[in-house]
């Protein structure tokens, strides 16, 4: 049959053995954006003492990425690269909130005793201790455009504006009627900030206003205790989270409600801003609102289209989220003391390539001499290269290209099946660990009436064990069980003596038995469930 | 009337002298194909039965290469002489005996020595001898000599007699003739100056197995023969003793001993005999190349083997995909033709063995294990475009244009390499085209090996352009668990299909959630199951949509259930046929439904949808039903047994079953028209919208002429004609009948009975009976009606009452 390979003029084409198609959902869920968001490879950081109420990434300017997570009475720094613990700062009480200064040199941490402490991030030495709150502080933040002041709010319902250097309160903003839980400083104006409180209101304060903090500049009612509030990058809109909903407000319109997103099932606990799209690319980077809730969902909201573009579930209630300034690392804190940290795989993408190309062009220009030399090196007859000249030539623009016929790429089992070496094909595909292909080869063997013969011919040592292992693993998979259960019975029938003789195969059979028992249990419980449901369906269909 | 779908591979084709044309025996005519384009250029019509041999008169001088004359022989007992360039018939020789094979050695002889012009040409023919009773006792078929110049059989010159018709093989220069007779070969030497009286010298070679094919070496005295087990014998130097003798035949066999003649059996006159064995099954074709250096052989496994005659070395042209039947060399040494069993003729470039062109006819029916008892014959018609979809042996579907008589495209339903020798394990069970031809649905079954791996697969295809190329849209594995599919029907004007199964349920499939087909939607939206229905867990055996698509009729064995396909509600039940129903069809724009059932008491029944009862029925075995889309007539193909009675499927005495096509107006039981046909078992019927341009131009013709009627017989030969035709067209129908069944005319003679009752059909039932069961709305109201003292005891009433409360509706919405 060796000659059969050489002729390509055969009339019937060669078909590969194809696995059965998998059913796909009707609406493909993988949009470009959801692909982006699910490209964060999630790792779980465990064994933290208690819930993680606050996570902060260090600002971009400070070289290596670090994020800080408040965790019980300590503040832990993690590397944004490999999520290993870098260092820890111990505090006297449970830390509720932390904030990096805009240059990343300092970090402020608020705790339940009501004091705010400021540390250097490098040496972790405490620099300042701000004491004025009488009740636990829930929120502290450095304004993004200001290095000297701090904003804080707490259970005493007072919002304070601090001069950090002097450890003194500059302004007390009184207006909230319940615990202040959250706040955010304006990205465009150093003296403006928002605070959200359990009295359902979000208030906008301005340090520069005349009335000296007696009255808020703006006030909106969220309708539920506010858990988080966030300015959008323009500084003209902000988002609030509370209850099951996230609401968008227009600041320039005097606090007009723009949109209310209510797709979480439980309380939304934290908001953060995400970036999608390449920086500096043609598509300007687009911002998304990421929200997490106690229902374990993280939702991505496109506030240009007012649409949820991605939704993702984590196996724990989520209470805080942060995204690194470059948008490549995401950290989500849960209420049970673990962090889901995710990092996008950054491709060595096109910019680098472009750069290389550019570099090449520059080099080419610079090395004009060499190019000339290459031109002069005309291939002369008599050399081997002379026979190969022109073979690597690329087609020019106007040339008619004769397409070469597409070659079917055959896997090893396909080649063996083509040569009618059935048993070897079965063994080859069993070694490949792809159950779909194995079943496809088995089906092809059935069509050739050769499967039983193959089973009979398998060697006891390795090959039969391989098959038994496969059957143990996949015989109860519903997709394949119709074929594989029958085959299992056949194998046990045909090779009973061999199996009895070999210790390893006996073990396989024992495993097999266990998985079959398990399957029977599942089927029984499913039938019980069907018994419960079917009368209900019956009644429902009668209506 | 259009005829077509003929078999191109019944006899070997012949090249014309300039190799520009290929003459192919196709049914009752000879089709002339261009070898450049592979398209048919002409047709030699005139024979009244199957043409069995065609011989091109060879060119004696290079200048005469453009001459295009040929002899043809046919089963109608005539040998005709044609000019196939024009094409017209020049002469006809009537010998009154069916000719099965013919060679004319003298044509090739006077190539060599063209001495006198007035040489008589003699043909050697294999004829069916049936005039004398004593001949029948000896053997039915004779090899005889025929004087073509005088147009008569040469008396007394019966060369051989045998039980079966055999091909006469001639050496390339016409001096030797060979005929195989089971395990023997008879070889005659034709004298260079042939006359009626000359006695031909004959030798016989023997073999242990039945021989299938022989070939003569062009220059040397070498003979090759293939046998049924795949061996190829090569006899060298045969007949040296007998044919070399100047006169008389001396039996020199006594001198021959086995040592001198290795491999030669007994007293055969040959020097040596060698055996080559590569083919696993019967050898079908053998041919020496024109220089005699190579021998080509082929058989059932579909591989052309090229043997080097001197050394026995082999080269292969594999994967032709179908059993090989004939091989023909052309005068142009650069190419030749291979005929395959799937009705394809491949033109092969010679030294490199590449396939240049393929002439592909309609796919022939093939044998496969019977999967279902249903009527799905695997033939589906596209009424508007005049296409027919047929299953092929290589797991594909061929789309064939009825009007153009050529293949349009092939759709590979199951992607697998077809090996002709293998046992058939995958069967494409049904092929259904939607009414507008834009969708195709196929189902296939993989037969289990020892109870393992049984799989039923339903596939939906859509076509993007009008060219008939379909691409796969959806695959449904095990649509009805492991139960077989009995019928598939498409909704007439929406993207909806119904598949019914023997497992007791039917499923309604939709694509694009029922958007009308006219709107162009994205084609690759898949099909999903819209609803499942079942009726008392009975096997669902047939299904049909009403012409407007509002009613779905599904046959649950003997009863017909009517459903609303959108809401999946059981509307009504019509009972009760005698045997399980195998086919259902709504009749055009009338309120009637036709059903056909098989079994010991076959039945053709027409049901009225208005009063849900039978209108009339016949006890007939119906092979196919077709209903006209826009009138109230329908046609049924009825099988007849030998005795003219009702066909019984259990008797297997004959392989071709004659039948009748009855055209009915659904309101009355008397057929409007009757045609008798041959080979009706496995046939198919359809009404096709006429689209030939000349019909369109004469718009004043009556409306009935717009629809043609198509009948395809068991060999996939088809005919298109106008069922309500005028006088002339009726004549043509009878002419066609006389062509297709010449010896039948005396037997049945239904043509004289147009419009009358059918006397031979027994047990006609005129009395319509009322429906035995249909769901009543509120049965409990009737249970307790009447005075209380007349009511039966409560214990008896309890049962019916509770039963009335139970769910009658079996449909389950999904």
From TrEMBL, chain A:
WD repeats lie at residues 130-172, 173-215. Residues 394-536 form the U3 small nucleolar RNA-associated protein 15 C-terminal domain. Keywords: Nucleus, Repeat, rRNA processing, WD repeat. It is found in: Nucleus, Nucleolus. PROSITE patterns: WD_REPEATS_2, WD_REPEATS_REGION. Coiled coil: none annotated. This is U3 small nucleolar RNA-associated protein 15 C-terminal domain-containing protein.
TrEMBL record, chain B:
WD repeats lie at residues 204-235, 276-317. The keyword Nucleus applies. InterPro entries: Beta-prop_WDR75_2nd, Quinoprotein_ADH-like_sf, WD40/YVTN_repeat-like_dom_sf, WD40_rpt. Transmembrane segments: none annotated. It comes from the Eukaryota. This is WD repeat-containing protein 75 second beta-propeller domain-containing protein. Pfam families: Beta-prop_WDR75_1st, Beta-prop_WDR75_2nd. Residues 394-651 form the WD repeat-containing protein 75 second beta-propeller domain. It is found in: Nucleus, Nucleolus. Keywords: Nucleus, Repeat, Ribosome biogenesis, rRNA processing, WD repeat. Gene3D superfamilies: YVTN repeat-like/Quinoprotein amine dehydrogenase.
């Amino acid at each position: 049959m060796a000659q059969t390979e050489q002729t390509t003029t055969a009339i019937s084409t060669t078909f590969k053995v194809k696995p059965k198609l998998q059913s796909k959902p009707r609406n493909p869920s993988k949009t470009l954006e959801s692909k982006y968001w699910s490209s964060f490879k999630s790792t779980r950081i465990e064994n933290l003492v208690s819930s993680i109420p606050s996570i902060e990434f260090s600002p971009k300017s400070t070289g290596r990425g670090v994020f800080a997570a408040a965790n019980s009475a300590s503040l832990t720094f993690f590397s944004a690269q490999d999520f290993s613990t870098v260092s820890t700062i111990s505090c006297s009480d449970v830390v509720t909130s932390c904030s990096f200064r805009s240059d990343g040199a300092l970090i402020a941490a608020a705790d339940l005793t009501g004091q705010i402490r400021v540390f250097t991030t490098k040496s972790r030495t405490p620099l300042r201790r701000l004491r004025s709150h009488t009740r636990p502080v829930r929120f502290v933040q450095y304004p993004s455009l200001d290095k000297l002041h701090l904003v804080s709010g707490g259970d005493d319902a007072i919002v304070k504006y601090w001069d950090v250097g002097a450890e003194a309160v500059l302004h007390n903003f009184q207006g909230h009627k319940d615990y202040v839980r959250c706040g955010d400083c304006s990205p465009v104006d150093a003296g403006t900030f928002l605070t959200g409180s359990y009295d359902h209101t979000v208030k906008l304060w301005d340090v520069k206003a005349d009335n000296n903090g007696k009255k808020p500049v703006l006030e909106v009612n969220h309708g539920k205790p506010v858990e988080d509030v966030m300015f959008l990058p323009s500084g003209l809109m902000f988002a609030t989270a509370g209850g099951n909903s996230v609401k968008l407000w227009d600041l320039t319109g005097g606090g007009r409600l723009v949109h209310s997103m209510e797709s979480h099932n439980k309380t939304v606990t934290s908001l953060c801003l995400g970036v999608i799209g390449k920086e500096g690319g043609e598509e300007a980077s687009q911002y998304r609102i990421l929200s997490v809730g106690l229902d374990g969902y993280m939702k991505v909201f496109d506030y240009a289209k007012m649409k949820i573009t991605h939704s993702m579930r984590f196996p724990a209630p989520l209470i805080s989220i942060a995204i690194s300034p470059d948008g490549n690392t995401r950290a989500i804190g849960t209420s049970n003391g673990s962090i889901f940290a995710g990092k996008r795989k950054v491709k060595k993408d096109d910019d680098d390539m472009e750069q290389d190309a550019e570099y090449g062009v520059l080099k080419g220009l610079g090395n004009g001499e060499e190019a000339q030399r290459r031109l002069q090196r005309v291939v002369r007859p008599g050399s081997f290269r002379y026979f190969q000249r022109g073979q690597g030539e690329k087609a020019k623009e106007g040339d008619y290209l004769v397409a070469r016929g597409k070659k079917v790429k055959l896997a090893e089992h396909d080649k063996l099946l083509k040569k009618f070496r059935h048993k070897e094909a079965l063994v080859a595909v069993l070694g490949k660990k792809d159950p779909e292909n194995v079943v496809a080869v088995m089906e092809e063997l059935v069509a050739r009436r050769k499967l039983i013969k193959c089973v009979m011919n398998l060697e006891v040592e390795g090959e039969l064990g391989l098959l038994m292992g496969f059957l143990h693993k996949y015989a109860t998979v519903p997709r394949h069980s119709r074929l594989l259960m029958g085959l299992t019975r056949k194998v046990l029938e045909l090779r009973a003596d061999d199996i009895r003789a070999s210790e390893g195969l006996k073990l396989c059979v024992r495993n097999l038995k266990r998985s079959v028992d398990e399957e029977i249990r599942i089927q029984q419980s499913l039938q019980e469930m069907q018994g419960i449901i079917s009368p209900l369906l019956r009644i429902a269909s009668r209506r | 009337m259009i005829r077509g779908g003929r078999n191109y591979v019944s006899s070997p084709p012949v090249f014309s002298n300039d190799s520009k044309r290929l003459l192919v025996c196709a049914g009752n005519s000879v089709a002339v194909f261009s070898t450049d384009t592979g398209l048919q250029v002409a047709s030699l019509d005139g024979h009244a039965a199957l043409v069995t041999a065609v011989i091109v008169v060879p060119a004696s001088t290079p200048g005469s290469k453009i001459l295009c004359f040929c002899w043809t022989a046919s089963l109608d007992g005539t040998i005709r002489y044609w000019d196939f360039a024009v094409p017209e018939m020049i002469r006809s020789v009537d010998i009154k005996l069916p000719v099965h094979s013919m060679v004319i050695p003298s044509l090739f002889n006077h190539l060599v020595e063209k001495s006198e012009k007035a040489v008589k040409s003699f043909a050697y023919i294999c004829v069916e001898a049936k005039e004398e009773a004593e001949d029948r006792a000896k053997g039915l078929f004779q090899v005889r000599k025929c004087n073509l110049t005088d147009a008569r059989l040469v008396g007394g010159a019966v060369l051989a007699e045998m039980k079966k018709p055999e091909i006469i093989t001639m050496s390339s220069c016409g001096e030797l003739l060979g005929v195989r007779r089971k395990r023997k070969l008879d070889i005659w030497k034709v004298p260079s100056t042939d006359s009626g009286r000359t006695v031909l010298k004959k030798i016989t070679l023997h073999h242990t197995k039945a021989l299938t094919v022989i070939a003569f070496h062009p220059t040397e005295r070498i003979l090759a023969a293939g046998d049924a087990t795949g061996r190829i014998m090569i006899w060298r130097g045969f007949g040296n003793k007998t044919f070399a003798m100047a006169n008389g035949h001396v039996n020199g066999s006594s001198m021959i001993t086995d040592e001198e003649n290795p491999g030669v059996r007994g007293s055969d006159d040959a020097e040596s005999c060698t055996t080559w064995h590569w083919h696993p099954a019967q050898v079908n074709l053998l041919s020496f190349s024109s220089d005699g250096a190579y021998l080509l052989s082929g058989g059932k496994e579909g591989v052309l083997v090229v043997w080097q005659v001197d050394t026995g070395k082999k080269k292969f042209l594999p994967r032709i995909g179908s059993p090989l039947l004939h091989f023909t060399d052309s005068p142009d040494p650069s190419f030749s033709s291979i005929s395959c069993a799937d009705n394809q003729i491949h033109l092969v470039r010679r030294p490199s063995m590449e396939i240049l062109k393929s002439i592909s006819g309609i796919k022939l029916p093939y044998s496969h294990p019977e999967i279902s008892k249903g009527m799905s014959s695997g033939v589906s018609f596209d009424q508007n475009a005049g296409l027919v979809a047929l299953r092929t042996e290589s797991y594909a579907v061929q789309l064939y244009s009825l009007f153009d008589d050529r293949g349009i495209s092939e759709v590979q339903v199951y992607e697998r390499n077809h090996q002709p020798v293998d046992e058939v394990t995958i069967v494409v069970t049904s092929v259904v085209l939607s009414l507008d031809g834009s969708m195709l649905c196929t189902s296939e079954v993989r037969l289990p090996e020892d109870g393992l791996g049984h799989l039923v697969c339903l596939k939906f295809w859509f076509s993007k352009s009008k060219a008939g190329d379909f691409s796969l849209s959806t695959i449904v594995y095990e649509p009805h668990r492991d139960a077989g599919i009995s019928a598939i029907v498409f909704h007439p004007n929406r993207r909806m299909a119904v598949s019914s199964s023997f497992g007791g349920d039917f499923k309604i499939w939709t694509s694009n959630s029922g958007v009308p087909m006219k709107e162009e939607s994205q084609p690759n939206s898949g099909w999903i199951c819209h609803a499942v229905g079942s009726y008392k867990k009975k096997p669902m055996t047939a299904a049909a949509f009403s012409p407007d698509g509002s009613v779905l009729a599904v046959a649950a064995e003997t009863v017909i259930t009517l459903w609303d396909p959108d809401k999946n509600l059981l509307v009504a039940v019509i009972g009760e046929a005698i045997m399980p129903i195998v086919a259902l069809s709504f009749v055009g724009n009338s309120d009637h439904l036709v059903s056909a059932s098989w079994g010991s008491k076959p039945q053709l029944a027409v049901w009225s949808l208005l009063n849900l009862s039978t209108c009339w029925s016949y006890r007939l075995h119906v092979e196919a039903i077709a209903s006209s889309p826009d009138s109230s007539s329908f046609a049924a193909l009825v099988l007849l047994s030998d005795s003219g009675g009702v066909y019984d499927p259990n008797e297997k005495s004959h392989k071709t079953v004659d039948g009748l096509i009855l055209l009915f107006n659904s309101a009355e039981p008397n057929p409007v028209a009757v045609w008798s046909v041959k080979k009706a078992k496995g046939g198919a019927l359809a009404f096709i919208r006429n689209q030939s341009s000349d019909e369109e131009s004469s718009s004043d013709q009556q409306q009935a002429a717009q629809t043609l009627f198509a009948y395809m017989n068991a060999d996939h030969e088809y005919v298109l004609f106008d069922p309500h035709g005028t006088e002339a067209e009726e004549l043509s129908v009878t002419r066609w009948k006389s062509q297709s069944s010449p010896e039948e005319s005396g037997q049945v003679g239904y043509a004289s009975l147009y419009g009358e009752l059918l006397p031979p059909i027994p047990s006609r039932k005129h009395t319509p009976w009322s429906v035995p069961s249909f769901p009543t709305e509120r049965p409990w109201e009737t249970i307790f009606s009447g005075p209380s003292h007349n009511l039966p005891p409560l214990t008896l009433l309890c049962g019916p009452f509770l039963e009335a409360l139970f769910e009658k509706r079996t449909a389950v919405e999904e």
